[in-house]
Amino acid sequence: MSLTAFHDRSTRISCIIPQCPRSALRSLFPNADEIICGRCWRTVDLSLRERYAQLKKREKRLERLEQLKALQHRHFGVSWSLLREQQRKNWATIEADAYAKAALGLEGTAGAPRGKRT
Ligand SMILES: [Zn+2]
Fold it and tell me: H or E stretch including 103?
């Protein structure tokens, strides 16, 4: 495989950090418009990443509740619009934080498993 094919935009999504050469297979993230690679992700403040995980958990719970609701015709008062808005804000903050860290030239080791810190 040539390098050009590896960076083919139709099969890969580039990391949101412009100076970062990494990308991910589009097929692994079918619903994603943007991705942030693991190395850049680890430069983002831990509190923002924890918030991201919390919102992701809420999303999964909402999906489960919706299935239950469909099965049992119940109303749980769940709000996708609120969750999507929270996720959008969280992602925008993560993006800004990752950009700032990249501008400072930081490497993504913060929050990595202890054994992998250098
Ligand atoms: Zn990156």
Answer: helix 80-103
